[in-house]
Amino acid sequence: MAPLKQLERDNPIIDACFRDFCASHGILTAEDFLLHDLYELAAFAERLANSDRLKESITLMLSLIELQCRPLLNGMELLEDLHRHKHTLSTGDKGTDSLLQGGFREGQLTELVGPSSSGKTQFCMQAAASVAEKHVGRVLYLDTGNSFSPRRVAQFICASSDAALVQTRNVYVQEVLSRISCHTVYDIYTIFDTLQGLEVTLRSQVQMNVNKCRLRLLVVDSVSSLITPILGGSGSQGRALMVALGYLLKKLAHEHNIAILVTNHTVGAGEGGKTKPALGETWKSIPHVRLMLSRDHRNSDCTISILKHTSLFLCVFVFFLAFRRDCEDHNSQGQSTMIVLASFAIYAHLLEQCLFNQ
């Protein structure tokens, strides 16, 4: 559903006063109402001078939500939708694709967790180059720290391109780069505006039956830098905004068959120098897939492991990759190379056969 402001034209009671009241509780869209305790919201409204009008607006919002509810689907219909519309997209590396049994799944939110300088941004740019090139799809890259490098993306494209002549290769690289859009977002409210505008655009494209070079990958690098600043204190608004952002990302992924990749940093987990993904337990339940990337700075080797996967069997097993790169020089010899040290997919399949054939 649309942002609250877009509902005012047909429903004047959803005015600026009501929207300000909702925003103070982390409610920016109609869907956000489903993530809040409505009794608590009504109790807050009771304390204000215009409580009757606010409660009337809340009742109207519930009616609008009920009208927009999607029909229920059975298991066979969901499976058919998966096979027909939720394809896999290459990450740009054969080892990672093998780990994920094909790559990123459309309709799913994948989170890449890792400490600073572990290669998260390089991974994102490689994935963007791969989808724009191999799948001839559009990529939207939301950059929160000015870390996106078109030059680096071009190097990824050149490394996988078969074009021999320099002139031909340059034209090809420019064509692929034209399918990647990068937007800078510095706070949680900017990304909400960006994603809500994207949702309106995608819906209009569906109505006009525009399928040429559709959006296939959305990258947010990094989501933690947007959420962490609003989580301080004892208030619930920051947590509500975090959940609303996760819900909006998953909604876009499912309804428009987009693969979404977000990055998250790590924080200390107590004694022993151990680390864990940031953003806490509430965010933990949001991604469909959670990958951990760690780097040995002595030899530039990295280890990537699956922390969570909703559609792979026995995803707790670790899959090791040697990830050697030269991020500082950004030359073609510094192209990311991943060497598979263990085949997770084959091992999991064999183990599954052993367990179910006993």
Automatic annotation (TrEMBL):
<keyword id="KW-0539">Nucleus</keyword>
<dbReference type="GO" id="GO:0005657">
    <property type="term" value="C:replication fork"/>
</dbReference>
<dbReference type="GO" id="GO:0033063">
    <property type="term" value="C:Rad51B-Rad51C-Rad51D-XRCC2 complex"/>
</dbReference>
<dbReference type="InterPro" id="IPR051988">
    <property type="entry name" value="HRR_RAD51_Paralog"/>
</dbReference>
<dbReference type="GO" id="GO:0007131">
    <property type="term" value="P:reciprocal meiotic recombination"/>
</dbReference>
<keyword id="KW-0233">DNA recombination</keyword>
<keyword id="KW-0067">ATP-binding</keyword>
<dbReference type="GO" id="GO:0000400">
    <property type="term" value="F:four-way junction DNA binding"/>
</dbReference>
<dbReference type="InterPro" id="IPR003593">
    <property type="entry name" value="AAA+_ATPase"/>
</dbReference>
<dbReference type="InterPro" id="IPR047323">
    <property type="entry name" value="Rad51D_C"/>
</dbReference>
<dbReference type="GO" id="GO:0003697">
    <property type="term" value="F:single-stranded DNA binding"/>
</dbReference>
<dbReference type="InterPro" id="IPR013632">
    <property type="entry name" value="Rad51_C"/>
</dbReference>
<keyword id="KW-0234">DNA repair</keyword>
<dbReference type="GO" id="GO:0042148">
    <property type="term" value="P:DNA strand invasion"/>
</dbReference>
<keyword id="KW-0227">DNA damage</keyword>
<dbReference type="GO" id="GO:0000724">
    <property type="term" value="P:double-strand break repair via homologous recombination"/>
</dbReference>
<comment type="function">
    <text>Involved in the homologous recombination repair (HRR) pathway of double-stranded DNA breaks arising during DNA replication or induced by DNA-damaging agents.</text>
</comment>
<keyword id="KW-0547">Nucleotide-binding</keyword>
<dbReference type="GO" id="GO:0000723">
    <property type="term" value="P:telomere maintenance"/>
</dbReference>
<dbReference type="GO" id="GO:0140664">
    <property type="term" value="F:ATP-dependent DNA damage sensor activity"/>
</dbReference>
<keyword id="KW-0238">DNA-binding</keyword>
<protein>
    <recommendedName>
        <fullName>RecA family profile 1 domain-containing protein</fullName>
    </recommendedName>
</protein>
<feature type="domain" description="RecA family profile 1">
    <location>
        <begin position="85"/>
        <end position="266"/>
    </location>
</feature>
<comment type="similarity">
    <text>Belongs to the RecA family. RAD51 subfamily.</text>
</comment>
<dbReference type="GO" id="GO:0005815">
    <property type="term" value="C:microtubule organizing center"/>
</dbReference>
<dbReference type="GO" id="GO:0005524">
    <property type="term" value="F:ATP binding"/>
</dbReference>
<dbReference type="Pfam" id="PF08423">
    <property type="entry name" value="Rad51"/>
</dbReference>
<dbReference type="InterPro" id="IPR027417">
    <property type="entry name" value="P-loop_NTPase"/>
</dbReference>
<dbReference type="InterPro" id="IPR020588">
    <property type="entry name" value="RecA_ATP-bd"/>
</dbReference>
